[in-house]
Amino acid sequence: MSEQRINAALEEATDTRDVKIEVGALASVPEVFRENFGEGSIVIVADGNTFEVAGREVQRELEAAGYTMMEPYVFPAEPPLYAEYSNIEKLRDSLREHAAVPVAVGSGTLNDIVKRSSHECERSYMCVGTAASMDGYTAFGASIEKDGLKQTLSCPAPKAVVADLEILQNAPENMTASGYADLLGKVTSGADWLVADALEVEKIDLTGWSLVQDHLREWIGSPAELRAGDQQSTEHLVEGLIMSGLGMQSYVSSRTASGAEHQFSHLWEMEGLGKDADPPLSHGFKVGMGSVAIAALYELLLERDLADLDIEALKDSWPTREKMEQSVRAQHTSPELEEGAVEQTLAKYISADELAERLELLREVWPGLREKVREQLMPAWEIKEMLEAAGCPTTPVEIGLGWGNFEKSYRRAQTIRKRYTVLDLASETGLLDECVQELFAPEGFWGRVAASRAAADGAGR
Ligand SMILES: [Zn+2]
Known about the structure:
- The chain is α/β, with parallel strands linked by helices.
- It has helices at 3-12, 29-37, 48-64, 85-95, 108-120, 165-169, 173-184, 186-198, 206-213, 216-219, 223-227, 231-251, 260-270, 283-303, 311-317, 321-331, 335-347, 352-376, 380-390, 403-415, 422-428, 432-440, 445-460, and strands spanning 18-22, 42-47, 73-75, 101-106, 126-129, 142-146, 149-153, 160-164.
- The longest helix is centred in the last third of the chain and has 25 residues, at 352-376.
- The N and C termini lie far apart (46 Å).
- Residues 134-135, 182, 258, 262, 283, 287 line the site of zinc ion.
């Protein structure tokens, strides 16, 4: 773990002041708390599992240090805590009965619930992480289901984060694997930012870029060891996840850490995929699948010469705003999702003339961009193998998605966020449908995956 890197990143962060991750870190909770919040009363918020894993000890440490402790707020262990708004209301109403500072002891969902509830009470909070399962510990925003739709509600990141490395190392395997997949997704999200930068849609911010990308290969380099519970690999993972969150704070946007692979994940989340599975399908597992999907699409685009497009023909066949809206509506089946998708797609809509300008620019920048993107990316099969080594699902069937729906996700994912990604590049160059068809053809990337999966299923019978 590079404390130096994390401390330098904290200088750039807007909300988080302190991060301490080491073996035995729970003993330093009182000291970290005092430095960031001073005296005052504290309420531990956990669920039945995380209270046993770390909450009880944190409570003891803080009591021993002389803090006034409220009765801990413990969500039931079963069924697994779900990130829905009613849980935020419950916690918020309870927090309003006193002025204690919340200390969240848990991982993704619990942290998100405390993050937003604290914000609604205008209180800052501290987090004690129990699994390296996502990059949200040091990120702002909470992913919550509200009014039947999974959405990101705004709220600042915690003021301080503490995690005991041994607890992270012994966390359930699927949680660590999820964190790994969330981090691996920065490979494709970086490529998307390179594209957006070259096309003058969104300039690269060097600080935000460096925090996430400079050491990425090192952080994701040992998936099999990570799965086996190796301490150094766990350190690498958690450092990457913490830095990724701090990168988002520094740039005040998730662009640093989220591209088209996250659009797949958000789409499936909004469609409720794996919500009722046990355990529920994690954010990271969806991001991992999205990363393989996007890396495979990039491969096909990079084979083509995008400096040699028929710009006039593309301009002539570019849909009007109205046609674009109709096509988005036709693709979604849920009314809430449809409205949001129309809004997001139209926010990034460009006219036929603007399209021609962008494609002219692409013609100029393509040779250099192609090189940069090739350097940033890894082959889709390699990403797939790394995910498998870490214990992540890598075929749609494993996450409960049919092949047909998976194929359609390429189009649908493009519509749900205004952020410019490779899905937009493929669509604007008239290549998205063609590439997707190629990916799912018998000799294409997904065609071959489907065939080998079918053969394995047959052999297992
Ligand atoms: Zn993520």
